[in-house]
Write a structure and sequence with these properties.
The protein is α/β, with parallel strands linked by helices. The chain is built from 14 helices and 18 strands. Strand 16 and strand 17 form a beta hairpin.
Length: 419
Amino acid sequence: MKSILLGCIADDFTGATDLANNLVRTGMRVTQTIGVPDGPLDTDVDAVVVALKSRTIAPAEAVAQSLEALAWLQAQGARQIYFKYCSTFDSTAQGNIGPVTEALMDALKTDFTIATPAFPDNGRTVFKGHLFVGDVLLNESGMQNHPLTPMTDANLVRVLQAQTRRKVGLIDHTVVARGAAAIRERIGQLRAQGVGVAVVDAVSNDDLLRLGPALDGMPLVTAGSGVAIGLPANFGLAPSQQASQLPPAAGLQAVVSGSCSLATNRQVAHFIHSGRPALAIDPLRIASGADVAAEALAWAGPLLQGGPVLIYSTADPAAVKSAQGRLGVEEAGAMVERALGAIARGLVERGVRQLVVAGGETSGACVQALGVTQLRIGPQIDPGVPWCHATNDGGLHLALKSGNFGTDDFFTKAFTLLQ
C-alpha cells in the first residue's frame, strides 16, 4: 500500500461511510476500516476512514481509541488528519468531541484547528455559530429527544467551549463569503488571540468549497462530512466515476433498523405502507428472556425470496422513553443492539447479500456481529449514505444509514439503485 493522502477518524460507523461517501464523490478512492487495522492494508487508495464506535463511550476511552487510530494513520503516511463527528454535533454530556479534538491536537503538535458539522446537502447549516437542521435550530429539530445524546443548545461555540480547555472562536459567514484568503487571514487573527479551535459558518456547498483551500496543509481538520467536498482538490484530485465502482450485486435483500430518529420513523412507515413485510422488535420481550432474534429469523426466512424484508426496533420518542424508564437507558440500548446484530448475522447466513442498516449504534453492532473489517465505498444512495462492499463471506453489499439521513422512500430506493 502506498502512502495515503488523507487519514480519517470517525466516531461511529455510519458517520464513517458518510464521510467516505463525500470523499469518493469528489474523486478519492476510499477504504473504510472497522476499528484500527492490525497492519497495512493490501489495497491502493487515496484515503482511509477508520470507523470507531466512540461517540457515546467514556471520554477517556474515546481519546485512547482515537489516538490509536491516529498512530496507525501516521504509520501509513497520511498527510492530513480528519476527525469526523456527526452533523448534529452530538456526543455525550461530557463531550467526546472536545476531548478527542484536544488529544489529537496535542499528538500532532498543532495549536489550531477548525470545527464545523455543516452538511448543507442534508440540511445541516451553521450560521453565526448556531447549528440549524433544516429551518430550525438544532435544539428544536427532534435532537433534543435523542435517547443517548440529546442536544439542547444550538450554539456550537458554547457547546464546544464547555468540552475543551482551549479557547473557542468563530469564523463567521461574512469572512467565509470572501473566500480562502480571507479565511486564512481570520485564522491568523484568531491564533494571535489565543484561539485554538474555530467554529466555521457554512450555509451552502459554495461555503465549504471556499473553506477547502484554506485548510490546505492544516495538520488536523475536525468536522462533519461536508467539509470533505473541498479537500480532494488540495491533493490534485477531481471527481471520477471509477472511484465509486463496486462489484455487481447479488443475493437476497433485507433492512435492519434500530434508529429512532424522525427520519427513520418515516422510512419505516413508508416501507410498511408500500405493502412490504416488516416485523417490530420489542425491547421488553428481549428483557423478559425471549429469543427475539430466533423468532425474527424464523419469520423472515420464508419471506426473503419475495423481496426485501424489514426488521426494526424503531419507535417514537414516547415509546423509547417508556422502555428506557423500565430497563435503563444503557441497558435498553445494549439489549436491542445485541439482538439486531444477531439478526443481521442470521440474515446473511440465510443468503442476504444486500443489507441496509439504519442507525449509527445499530450499524456498529451489525458490522461487528458480521465480522466485517473493511469496506470499499461505492455510489451514493442519498446524501451521506453510499452503498459499500465487504469482501468477507463471499461478498456483501452494505448501506449504513445515519438515523437522520435519507428520504422517506430510502429503504426501497436503495435496492433499486443497486440493481
